[in-house]
Known about the structure:
mainly alpha
Amino acid sequence: MVLLDFLTIGVFTGIILVAGLSFGKKGGDMKSFFAAGGAVPWSISGLSLFMSFFSAGTFVVWGSIAYEWGWVAITIQMAMCISGFLIGTFLAARWKRTNALTVAAYLTQRFGKTTQRYYTFLFLVLSLGYTGAFLYPVAKILNVVTSFNIYYSILLLGGLIMVYTAVGGLWAVVVTDVLQFVVLTAAVLIVLPLSLDTVGGWSRFIQEAPEDFFRLFNDTYTPGFILAFIGYNTIFIGGNWAYVQRYTTVKDSTAAKKVGFLFGGLYLISPLIWMLPPMIYRVINPGLTGLETEGAYLMMCMNVLPAGMLGLMLGGMIFATASSVNTSLNLAAAVLTNDVYRPLFPAAGNRRLMQVARIATLLFGLGTIAVAFMVPMAGGIVEVVLSIGAITGGALYAPAIWGLFSKKLAGRHILFVTGISLLINVYFKFISPELFSFSLDRSSEMLVGVFLPLVLLGIAETYVRRSTGSTHTEVEVGEKSMLTEEQQVLLAASSQRQNTYGFQVLGWAFISMGVLFVSLGTLAGSARWYLFFLGTLMVLLGVGLIRLSKKRKKINHSLVVDK
Length: 563
């Protein structure tokens, strides 16, 4: 990296931080801070969901698999599009109809406070593992490109993410997610043709790739693994407390469905673009082994990108991957504030609750940093992400999803299913290999982790239905609005003002990024016209968003005046 790359990273970081921190005065109450007013446009929420999930080590985890195994990485990621369509069809609208601020609040409505407390404890503990696993790839990216110490990288980036999430709340998260999506997509669209040019074109890449490099499956990632992976992601994306926010913070059930469909559509297309660069790098440099393969994506970028553009790509990767971290931080703070602190101190006012929310964000962020420090000792990010997912995904999130469809099961039933599932998964992962030298392969581990909880829930459902028959009283979930018509109008106007402000912030951020792209284009040599074209598109997009925000502002003002 050269000085221009570091300057570009600094400018990009400044744009992200200014965009995130600008929402500090807009998150003055619980619904604003944790639900962005409750009426986020579905397109923004869908892009934010994509970035929150997509960025969970995509460049490091799936880039490593793509370098080592080839096309199977694309197969795995494309499987996620099926999960998105399933969620859009069956789950997203049901979550919206619960009218709950968090999944913990839904669990309280549906199963009672005792059940909610157990799941809250489990969620917070396991979320530290997830979020630490998300933070590690961010630091790994910085470490590979700059040789900056991995642990200092974790501290630096974890601190930055904590600050703008604690100040800006959910709007800061979703707006920076959308900005990262556009910038990173533009950057990768430059990397791909330059990578193909470096390797000598499609024909040479295909000819010199390893044998079986373009197989859909292999011995590790079998069709059974893909089936289990679809099931896991349907449960994980459809039930993870952080991702459920993306369905509950939009306007209505129809918008919630569109969030899931947009996620699925993006995963139908994006794997082809994202995974080809590390696959191409396998032909250019086939010598990476072990944890070195986690840096394959970045090494390809270092080979082909011109000065300045590498810094922009690195900045995009860092903050895109950080999207998963800030999403989890905001959600964990929501649970700690809304579902732990507020029941203990019901007299606490809004100002006190907001102080607790921001302190909770910072405390959970510190825990995340501590967990990220331990990832290298656990065998690398691929092992950590897939193992945590297999062990906990179905057990923790499937019971809540089941409750959206069935009103028969009680809290004790779903707690039993979660407990038994976790115990069995932990046994096969840690105890059986030590005592009996028997362990499940990755496909079997994923299958057991996903389908065992579903089987147990089915058994419990059958037992309860036979035992209670038609005398069982079903629980109605979903809070009816207690607001007057005038209060509902004012609340809707407040949400629209936040949306309008969000468009305005995005517009100026896109204009800033477009100018940066064009400026880099003057120094980019062969990539010059790519940068000019993409930079101009960003400026036009930014201008369009600013005009839209002004138009919406006038409409919102006239509606309030009429009332």
